[in-house]
Amino acid sequence: MRIAVDAMGSDNYPSPDVEGAVQAARMYSDEILLVGDRETVETELKKHDILGLKITIVHASEIVEMTDKPSVVGKTKPDSSMHIGMNLVKDGEAQAFVTAGNTGAALTIAMLYTLHRIPAVKRPALSSIIRVHGNYVTMVDIGANTDSKPEWMVQFALMGDIYARKALKLERPRVALLSNGEEKGKGNQAIQETYEILQAYTHLNFVGNIEPKDILNGKGDVVVSDGFIGNITVKSFEAFGSALSGLIRSELKRDPISAMGGLLARRAFARVSRQIDPFEIGGAPLLGVNGVVIIGHGRSNAQAIRNAINQARLAVSGDIVQSIRDDLIVSR
Amino acid sequence: MRIAVDAMGSDNYPSPDVEGAVQAARMYSDEILLVGDRETVETELKKHDILGLKITIVHASEIVEMTDKPSVVGKTKPDSSMHIGMNLVKDGEAQAFVTAGNTGAALTIAMLYTLHRIPAVKRPALSSIIRVHGNYVTMVDIGANTDSKPEWMVQFALMGDIYARKALKLERPRVALLSNGEEKGKGNQAIQETYEILQAYTHLNFVGNIEPKDILNGKGDVVVSDGFIGNITVKSFEAFGSALSGLIRSELKRDPISAMGGLLARRAFARVSRQIDPFEIGGAPLLGVNGVVIIGHGRSNAQAIRNAINQARLAVSGDIVQSIRDDLIVSR
Question: Do B164 and B16 fall within a single domain?
Answer without folding.
Answer: no
